[in-house]
Design a protein that fits this description.
The chain is of the alpha/beta class. Helices cover 27% and strands 18% of the residues.
Length: 479
Amino acid sequence: MNVILILSDTFRQDLLEGRFKIKKKSSYTPHLDRFLKDSINFTRAYHASFPTVPNRADIYTGRYTLTFYDWSPLPRNWTILPQILSEYGYVTMMINNTPHILKDGYNFDRGFNGWIWIRGQENDRYRTYPRHPELPCDPSKLRKVESTLQHLRNNYGRRREEEWMPAKTAKAACEWLEENYREDFFLYIDFFDPHEPWDPPEWYKERFNPGYEGEEVIYPIYGPSDYLSEEELTHIRALYAAEAMLVDRWVGEIIETADNLGLLENTIIIFTSDHGFYLGEHNLIGKSIIFKEFHGLAPLYEEVAHIPLIVRFADELSYPHGVECDSLVQTPDITATILSLLHAEPPPNMDGYPLQKLLEREAERSIAVSSPSLIHGLRAGIRVTVTSKEWSLILAPQRMKAEETREYTYIVDGEKRVLKTLGDVRSELYHLPSDPNQKKNVIQDRKDIADLLHQEFLRVLAKLSANSSIYNNWKDYKI
């Protein structure tokens, strides 16, 4: 039995099946939509630890690392998924173009028999020419000008689609499969796209917003979106959809190669993401609030917390294809599923459930918990999202910690910033079946539901053996 795990950074769940809208047009992901018809679509999947690096830590360990870890190098004493599978005799391979898990000594290549880093995304210090590339918009609209310039340098001179990052990454994966398809293997493919900076080929952009002649804000400042004109925001949505469409095209290439090699009989293929992105919803752009040297934490609404999770079980396992599962599932469940299907002994502290048990209703989650790291205390406007079958509770602690002393974070891009509360911070409650866009906060009317979900969250913290300081920080919540 083999596993191909594909992660696409910042890929929103509503991109699938044409549900993401730009003007009157829908996003276009034909390869993944076709893959859905041959797989099980876990329609209520949520990330656990947030954002990029903590999410990968959850995948590597099968744990909710949010109670003891934040954006930092992978600890060498952790027992991790590629290490376990390597010890069981699997050939383990990482093919990656997400810079943050490899640059600056982050060590996420550990445990793999081999790894390839496709260089040049975002602030990866890869190339030095041209020294002063032309910016596509007013620099005051960019989250970090130097990171944008570095990305433009890294990718200067591209002409053909095969020169874009998703294509390079997928081609490396396909070549590896052609060489190793006779082995028992675990192949982990990590696409940084559709994470910004957004720079898809021109013909992809034209599909969604033809004739646009304004500025291209390819790496926008995170926070309130009112600094962008309506036309700019529409074009940002088009850039994002075009980038996702490019990922879809090359994920399709990987799946087709696996099929051509006869791997579908004995290979599990998983597609997922680490989180989504606000593109004007809730008057936000990005996934946090960044102001100069300060970093504030935004609420994790559905657009960010709800992620795609598509699993095509190997044909020999006889699981149904083309069906949906509405059980609440989370990122650590991916790890538990892989270890279970490959008959590898899980580490004793793993938190995830094998998806097979959720499919067969042998296990059931009452809530999903999505959160930035809890180890910094009550700083930066931290909120935890607690999701049940019908409700989404954005949980704000009662006592925000005074920020007299500086504490730093490296989220969301590995750059050091000061954690600081930016904006009003209160709890919110939404009834998802009747209000999927989370526009009507009903916490005042349904405090009974908020209380129940809050108590469920405290039980999860206790189950995760969160230290007393973390537990006590969340014993009360603010309305």
